[in-house]
Amino acid sequence: MVIAGPNGVFKKVNPTCLQLLGYSEEELIAKPFIDFVHPDDKQSTLDEMARQIKIGSSLNFENRYLRKDGSIVLLSWRASYDKNEGITYATARDITERKKAEDVLRENEKELNEAQRIGKIGNWSWDIATDKIVWSPEYYRLIGFDPTKAPPGYEEHLKAYTAESQTRLDAAVKKQMQTGEPYELDLEFANPKSTCRWITARSETIRDEKGKVIGLRGTAQDITERKKVEYAEERFKVIFENASDGMVLADVATHTFSISNTAFCRMLGYSPEEIQELGVPDLHPKEETAESLERFGRLARGELTSVRDMRMLRKDGSVFYADITASSITFEGKKYLLGVFRDATERKGAEKKEKKHLEELEKMNTLMIGRELKMIELKKENERLAKQLAQH
């Protein structure tokens, strides 16, 4: 506690204040107290003094003082100004450690919010007794609600989701309220203001010392990109499995097959499990092993994108022709070649028939031309004979 005169000098200082600042009473009252204030806080202190004289008091004004040993102490002041005497009566409380703790807490909260932003994960809590709901900034962003407003009630919150997700979430929450069983759900948003499309919602039950459910808390993580990948994979599987052409995924490094579709298995007469036990050379006649591996390598390197009339060997030993197109893909760090096989037997048969037809036409043309030439020669000979007869 201190008493300060109108000249800005301490008139009286209690022992606690002396101990706090490390000065003797004589040292503190020897010069204006503004000299003991931290240089960066002097102007704000003078401004507060002027305001205090005007209104008569100060509440919770904070400034830093320099201790005698050079260290800094942060003080919170409550002061009353007596206009008649021009005297200020004030009490100071050391809040240095509290401020440090607040700064640490504020920094931790900042780092947590930043981590949630980067990880796209928000958290929430609900106190059943007070019906108080708390959302983190990232949870507001994910859900698509105004962060300057209080979290909406439960029913309003449900409207952020599609009808199907609403039903599953509502059932899970009600079950948790009854049994305390937590939930983990993938939920889809319907709110156009939300920054993501899908989240994984997880919850936890809060109980008191008697085991009674007193609240819930949980997290929401943006899984939109994961869902896009899952959708793309599912779509690929449907296209892959139902394609009319044979399709197979081959490991570029080992020349072995990973997965194959029904058309490919039917084309070669193997089951999917048998295909996985085979390598590239097994699908071609032995005398063409080197050629098949050479073309596989060129397809894998992108030197070729397709191969026509490749001889393929079925499980029963029969041979057929196939046209192959391929593209490289990388999955889980490994390089694969996605091959699309089309049975070229009918095309080859049609080409053979067309070639034979063309050969027959060419043969007929040759015969017809020969006949024409012979007719021309006969005509010339007849003209020559007629001319000779006319001369006799």
Could you walk me through the main structural features you see in this protein, from its secondary elements to its overall organization?
The protein is an alpha+beta fold and 392 residues long. It is built from 12 helices and 15 strands. The protein has 3 domains: 2-94, 2-Layer Sandwich (Beta-Lactamase), CATH 3.30.450.20; 114-227, Beta-Lactamase (2-Layer Sandwich), CATH 3.30.450; 243-347, PAS domain (Beta-Lactamase, 2-Layer Sandwich), CATH 3.30.450. The protein has helices at 15-21, 25-28, 42-55, 96-119, 137-143, 154-158, 163-179, 224-242, 262-268, 272-276, 289-301, 345-391, and strands spanning 2-4, 10-13, 57-66, 72-82, 87-94, 121-127, 132-135, 184-188, 198-207, 213-222, 246-251, 257-260, 306-313, 319-331, 334-343. The chain has a 5-stranded antiparallel β-sheet, sandwiched between helices. Strands 7-6-10-9-8 form a 5-stranded antiparallel β-sheet, sandwiched between helices. It is elongated and about 165 Å long. The termini are far apart.
Give the proportion of residues in helices.
40-55%
Number of strands: 15
Q: Largest beta sheet: what is the strand line-up?
A: 2-1-5-4-3
- Secondary-structure element order, N to C: EEHHHEEEHEEHHHEEEHEEHHHEEEH
In terms of DSSP E residues, the strand content is 25-35%
What would you call the structural class? alpha+beta
- Number of helical segments? 12
Low-confidence blocks of residues: none
**Largest sheet entry:** 5 strands, antiparallel
What is the total domain count? 3
CATH topology of the largest domain: Beta-Lactamase
| Shape category | elongated
C-alpha termini separation: 164 Å
CATH homologous superfamily of the largest domain, by name?
A: PAS domain
Please write the CATH class name of the largest domain.
Answer: Alpha Beta
